[in-house]
Design goal:
The chain has about 90 residues and is α+β, with helices and mostly antiparallel strands. It has a domain of about 60 residues. It has a three-stranded antiparallel beta sheet with strand order 1-4-5. Strands 2-3 form a two-stranded antiparallel sheet. Strand 4 and strand 5 form a beta hairpin. The longest helix has 11 residues. It is elongated, with a radius of gyration of 18 Å. The termini are far apart. Bound molecules: zinc ion. The site of zinc ion has 6 residues, from loops.
Length: about 90
């Protein structure tokens, strides 16, 4: 049976994409401001202890009570961290 040759629409009706700079909803926690950023410097991710490469998009987590304690995370590492801590703030070592 013949297949209709159909092009995909240019844009999906509702784009799941959120504006740049806005963290995905799953990443948000009540105790910190979280933004999606890319920088021109490398950062060390506290989740995997590896470098976040310059110009790659990642998350920056800024505790509301301690803005100096901000950390840069790979998105995947932050997801794992949230699963582990259930969204609570981990005590600082
Ligand atoms: Zn990481």
């Amino acid at each position: 049976m013949p297949r209709k040759h159909r092009r995909l629409p240019e844009e999906p009706p509702t784009s799941p994409r959120r504006p740049r700079g806005q963290a995905p909803l799953w990443a948000l926690v009540p105790w910190a401001d979280i933004r999606r950023v890319s920088g021109d410097k490398p950062y060390r991710c506290p989740g995997c202890d590896l470098e976040i490469r310059p110009l790659s998009w990642h998350l920056v987590v800024v505790p509301r009570s301690d803005p100096e304690g901000r950390r840069h995370w790979h998105e995947g590492c932050w997801r794992i961290e949230l699963n582990r801590t259930q969204g609570r703030r981990r005590d600082r070592a």
